[in-house]
Amino acid sequence: MVEQKQLKKGIGLLIATALVTGNMMGSGIFMLPATLSQKSGPGAIILAWVLTGIGSIFLALSFAKLGSKYPRTGGPYEFSRRAFGDFTGFLNAWLYWNGSWIGNVAVIIAIASYAGNLIPPIANNHVIGFVFTSAILWIFTGINIMGVRLAGKIQTAITIFEILLFLVFILVAAIHFQAGHLTPLFPSGRGANTISVAASSTLWAFIGLESATVAAGEIRNPEKNIRRSTIIGISIATVMYMAINVFAMGAMDPTHLAKSSAPISDILSEFLGSGIGSIITVAAIISILGTTVGWLLSTARIAFAAGEDGVFPSAFAKVHPKFQTPYMALIIGSVLANILLFMNYTKGFNAAFNFVTLLATLSYLPVYAMTAASEIMLMKKVEKKVNVLKFIKVAFVPLLGFIYAGWAIYGAGAQTVMYGFLLLLAGIPFYLYMNHKRASTQNYAEQNQEIHSAS
Predict the structure, then answer these.
(1) How many Å apart are CA 415 and CA 417, to the nearest integer?
(2) pTM greater than the 0.85 cutoff
């Protein structure tokens, strides 16, 4: 493929796995134990993790299979384009790209929130806060431009650090685990009927499971390493998520856990001393910086692939001559993110920032559903003879993944679904323009060719 010749294959199995795990384990994990305890009881929380974990693994299997079969940069965009055509491919790219660069802003603001606990002016002064977040954005954009291997090594180191941090927490919480904190499993008002409410929080923890397929064009031995990194990455994240939450519920009284603003820090402070709080804050900042590296990488790759095929402007497909990275896709995404950061730190635009952030929250789930559907559709295109038994056998896992994605969309709530649909509609005029522009360019090229042939 064209972009595989242009983009440097600098990602091995370790970095690809770190990309998946690191992109999944973002800022939310530090708050999830408390957020979930506010909504549901221990039994509902555990079941929510089990359901979302199984559903996400079904989706990950579709990504792993398609990524190994079609190892081209762009992942979910490429799969849906092959299965359903350019328009569906564009919609996937549009939703994923917008959700990603807007999500990058939320991640960077989370860094500022934690940093503000250590350096108050970052939180209290809008100018300082804006300069700080802008600096984070452009430093890590620059790192991504300077090479995928450099960015990958940084994220790998941070992901390993993050896993070690959580293992320490799990060990401390396990030593002080009290089974009584988990009873009753289904307390009044927070019983089994709150599973879907808890799942609406846990499902977002699995966003990023597709990361290896998005950067497929830069992965060495992609036919094997995309599948391996996807399965290993989501397995690590799933086990860590469940262990962190179960041991957090056992280590702290449920009433205190629900009221905690920093549950992991509070639990470690209770058993290791109050001085640990600042260390955990620094560790959280380092962990989220790793997420920033990975998501900037993924955001640019989906836009690059769409630019290569002409469904996004060709500027997105420009590759740096020295570093062999999609530098224009990185720059464009970061410029938009910087504008949104400015809106966040401008008092009059706070409502607008909250609106567009909410608009992005549903972006990934339709992309996941279409990837599961794409696997079934591409099976039909590849397998010449299909009978009912073969269809059920081949389509069983992606069908379950599709059903799970649909359930997750339903659980996100009517308002969020509406905003996601509005974001999808907003992309259609953009696609129509690009489609007409591409057609006119092709017609012009054909006319010139006819003129030259005639002469």
Answers:
(1) 5
(2) yes
Question: Pick from 15, 17, 9, 25: which is nearest to 289 by CA?
Answer: 25
d(CA 228, CA 236): 12
DSSP 3-state of 219: strand
Q: By C-alpha distance, which of 438, 192, 401, 415 is closest to 309?
A: 438
pLDDT in tens, 230-283: 999 999 999 999 999 999 999 998 888 888 877 888 899 889 987 888 888 898
How far is residue 152's CA from residue 140's CA, in Å, rounded to a whole number? 12
Give the pLDDT confidence of 365-390 residue by residue, as tens digits: 899 999 999 999 987 655 567 777 77
Question: Distance between CA 118 and CA 110 in Å, rounded?
Answer: 13
Give the three-class secondary structure for 11.
strand
**Pick from 257, 218, 212: which is nearest to 231 by CA?**
212
| Cis geometry, peptide bond prior to residue 313 (ω within 30 degrees of 0) | no
- Choosing among 3.30.70.100, 1.20.1110.10, 1.20.1740.10, 1.10.3720.10, the CATH entry for 2-454 is 1.20.1740.10
- The mean pLDDT value for 418-432 works out to 91
- C-alpha 401/C-alpha 55 separation (Å) is 6
Q: If you write DSSP's letter for every residue of 133-165 in order, what string do you get? A: HHHHHHHHHHHHHT-HHHHHHHHHHHHHHHHHH
